[in-house]
Amino acid sequence: MRISEAIRCTWTPQYSNEMLHQPLKSFKPYILRTFSTSISRKYPSPMATASTQNDEAVSTQHKSTQIVPKPIQVAKRLEKFKTTIFTQMSMLAIKHGAINLGQGFPNFDGPDFVKEAAIQSIKEGKNQYARGYGVPDLNSAVAARFKKDSGLEVDPEKEVTVTSGCTEAIAATMLGLINPGDEVILFAPFYDSYEATLSMAGAKIKGITLRPPDFSLPIDELKSAVSKNTRAILLNTPHNPTGKMFTRDELNVIASLCIENDVLVFADEVYDKLAFEMEHISIASLPGMYERTVTMNSLGKTFSLTGWKIGWAIAPPHLTWGVRQAHSYLTFATSTPMQYASATALRTPDSYYEELKRDYSAKKAILVEGLKEAGFTVYPSSGTYFVVVDHTPFGLDNDIAFCEYLIKEVGVVAIPTSVFYLNPEEGKNIVRFTFCKDEDTLRSAVQRMKEKLSKK
Ligand SMILES: Cc1ncc(COP(=O)(O)O)c(C=O)c1O
Fold first, then answer.
1. From the CA of 433, how far away is ligand 1's center (Å)?
2. Domain 112-348 maps to which CATH number in 3.40.50.300, 3.40.190.170, 3.30.200.20, 3.40.640.10?
3. Other beta carbons less than 10 A from residue 262's beta carbon
4. Which residue intervals make up region (Disordered) (predicted)?
5. How many Å apart are CA 266 and CA 235, to the nearest integer?
6. What is the distance between the alpha carbons of residues 173 and 319, in angstroms, rounded to a whole number?
7. Dist. CA 63–CA 53, nearest whole Å
8. Nearest-CA residue for atom 7 of ligand 1
9. Residue 128 phi/psi, 5° resolution?
């Protein structure tokens, strides 16, 4: 075995089990320890060499042939990103037995009819590579649902690309349509993959901050930020983490600026079916916008199947071309049986979505009322399964300190939002809770907070 293979064999299990769940800063000594103890018996380790470099016992012949790998290596474009906050908080939750209202995945299962469709597809042998841009049945189902929801008729073969979750739709869109140096506008706070993916694409990011209490669009700031140099605006409605939904008036402002300056819109609409207080509007449906918009979505949130990672991007052919080019070399195709089952899911009657919203409205009421009774200032949330609150009544320095306190002393997990801002200071008073949990779990979490949190 070559040294590089030995390193890989010894490292990989440790990497996946432990390192992925720790902040990057803490990786280094860990790897060095692992490396030196596990490899040294078989191969002269660089660490051993380093620590014994004055030791006469180390032969000079060995030293000259040593390869000294750097323990952690990452490309500059990803250097600043740490382990995602969701992973960190979920691990802390397990350690302290805390109730996880942090990461946005349901603690209940998706509908049987969709799971049965997946099992059926597997049994029928739909198990080999799918067509790169999606199995025809799913492309058609996506196009049909989009027509019903937005009124837009799209060609399932030329304008729909099936991806591995919305995360891959986002990555394929950025990598397929953004050139290094292109300016892209983001609304902060933002879903964490946007900044990392834009960074991979080499984009120049301009942030516009949405501020509490209503997180409305700062129109003048946007007007002065958009110019002929702007390549795209990244829009997420309903919005994670705030639950804000962009109004028709706000979307009209964005649309007219985009048309005037020839700017693209990348619209992340994964929470479109979780719109409680107002109607969801796809910006692609506004006049003149379809030809400059990529609409991205996925199955996970609406069907409580976040682990399936089936998503899609809808765009006119001239933009779809770029998205598909990137998609072809990122994943090429996504899971075949899950795609067939997803087509079945998307053909579900409207009653499914109505019931989903009824269920989530009840959950939301439990959480929001409970948070208010516990003493938080709760900001209004119109969509998604998140609410954000001001934690400052409890006297902790910032959102991260508050979340750590909440996990360790109260036994509940929330997500600090400073990580969703270009300038973390802007999020230091705000934390996010999710209500995609069963009602008992929500009640227990609320009870803990009411009992153990005290205002300072
Ligand atoms: C705004 C937003 N976009 C995209 C995603 C990722 O979606 P998927 O799981 O389909 O990749 C999430 C998941 O939390 C999200 O909140």
1. 16
2. 3.40.640.10
3. 10
4. 43-64
5. 6
6. 9
7. 9
8. 166
9. -100, 175
Q: Which two tokens mark 308?
A: 């399936």
Sheet holding 386-390, edge to edge: 377-378, 386-390, 430-434, 415-416
Domain with residues 85-103+351-452, CATH architecture: Alpha-Beta Complex (3.90)
Contact 166 CB / ligand 1 (< 6 Å): yes
Who contacts 193 (Cβ-Cβ below 8 Å, separation ≥6)? 167, 170, 171
**How far away, in angstroms, is 450 Cα from ligand 1 center?**
31
CB of 46 within 6 A of ligand 1: the answer is no
The full set of domain ranges for the chain reads: 3-73, 85-103+351-452, 112-348
Q: Bridge-partner residues for 416, per DSSP?
A: 431
How, if at all, do strands 310-314 and 160-164 pair? Answer: antiparallel
Q: What is the mean pLDDT of residues 193-208?
A: 96
Distance of CA 306 from the midpoint of ligand 1 (Å): 9
H-run or E-run covering 209: strand 204-209
Query: Locate tokens 């290094």: which residue?
Result: 180
Q: Find the mean pLDDT for residues 239-253.
A: 98
295 lines ligand 1 (CB under 6 A): no
Residue type, 262: D
Domains 85-103+351-452 and 112-348 share a fold: no
191 CB near ligand 1 (under 6 Å) = yes
Tell me which of 43-52, 81-90, 212-221 is least confident: 43-52
- Which residue of 162, 191, 210 sits with most ligand 1 atoms within 8 Å of its CB, as the best mutation to test the pocket? 191
Q: Which helix (H) or strand (E) holds 135?
A: none
Alpha helix segments (H runs only) across 178-287: 192-201, 219-225, 248-261
Q: Residue 222: CB partners within 8 Å, gap ≥ 6?
A: 185, 208, 253, 254, 257
Name the pLDDT band for 68 (thresholds 50, 70, 90): confident
